[in-house]
Amino acid sequence: MVRVKFLGACREVTGSMHLVETENVKILLDCGMRQGKNVPRVYEFPFDPEEIDYVILSHAHIDHSGLLPLLYLKGFRGKIISTTATRDVTELLLLDSAKIMKEEQEKYNIPPLFDEYDVRETMLFFETYEYHRPIKLEDGVKVEFLDAGHIVGSAVTLLRINETILCYTGDIGHGNSPLMNPPETPKAVDVLIMESTYGNREHESREEGIRKLAEICNEVLKDGKLLIPVFAVGRAQEIIFELKRLMQAGKIPRVKVYLDTPLGCNVTEIYRNYAYMLRREFYELFLKGKDPLSFEQLEYVKSAGRSIEIARSDEKCIILSASGM
Question: N or C end: fewer C-beta atoms under 10 angstroms in the chain?
Fold first, then answer.
């Protein structure tokens, strides 16, 4: 018998964590941190971490990966299964999370859940695989990843336990990204665990969003700077790509564009390294030697000093700054 316990992201957006149990194996689907105002820092797992055999990680965002080092600290010594790109982005985000918690400890005396050493130790338990490759975990237990189209490396998980096929989507893309492939759909499953963050919303078309972006750029850049808050993973790379296209088409002024987030700069390099996992049209630009995440007006800002210089300058420019994860 397969039992599923929903331990996070139920009637809330963050903290994804689901426990799949059989008589012989315990598998955790994601191990995410709850985020938001008034969320307590202290966390106790509603299970014994030492008994978890596998963690299957859908993607790197902290609300899906953020408690992995704490799981390790509490005794987990199993395997963390993910795509290779997810592992690489996860390491960056967990190190950034440890850095932020250290700063909060120094400033507000809030004890951190883990530190950078714990992150390094946790990364040793990762095993990585590509899409469409069935992986045997145990006798009668296999897992396979499909492209979720959310961020680089994100995966829909097909978990086969004997005759039962469970599908865990993680976060799935909307299919209209210029970078990400549309999410792949499994042929047939017995149990579906699906995210529904925007299940009751109807989004405007991508074309309308780009039109509004161009309109705002043209209005603000008449006499000032345009600050665009972006997620360091996914959104930053898409905005860079769209700004480049708008400038090349002559639809917005060719002003300087600054990606003012060291984390975002490092993540962008991972997008380049795993371009083969992205949309074919996007990947082909790399194959032709045309880096779609680079153009003459773009500068990657990696130091606080340079960031201050840009903020104090009078130049008309566009600044992409991380708004958090």
Answer: N
Task: Walk me through the domains of the chain, giving residue ranges and CATH numbers.
Answer: 3-193 (3.60.15.10), 206-322 (3.40.50.10890)
Please, are residues 180 and 279 in contact by the beta-carbon 8 Å criterion?
yes
Distance in angstroms (rounded) separating the CA atoms of residues 80 and 135: 13
Q: pLDDT value at position 323? A: 62
Q: Measure the CA–CA gap between 45 and 293, rounded to whole angstroms.
A: 40
Tokens of 33: 């941190």
Q: Where are the extended beta strands (E) located within the chain? A: 3-8, 17-21, 26-29, 54-56, 79-82, 126-128, 135-138, 141-147, 155-161, 164-168, 191-193, 226-230, 256-259, 298-300, 317-322
For 52, the token pair is: 């978890």
Give the dihedral of Cα atoms 225, 227, 228, 233; nearest 10 deg. Answer: 120
Q: What is the DSSP letter of 252?
A: S
- pLDDT tens digits for 76-100? 999 999 999 999 999 999 999 999 9
Q: Determine if residue 213 is left, alpha or beta; phi over 0 gives left, psi from -120 to 50 gives alpha, anything else beta.
A: alpha
- Extract the runs of DSSP E, i.e. beta strands, from 139-255: 141-147, 155-161, 164-168, 191-193, 226-230
CA dihedral of residues 170, 67, 120, 21 (deg, nearest 10): -70
pLDDT at 256 over 80: yes
pTM of the model: 0.92
Residue range 192-201: average pLDDT?
82
Under 8 Å between Cβ of 253 and 215: no
Instruction: Count CA atoms within 13 Å of residue 54 on its CB side.
Output: 22
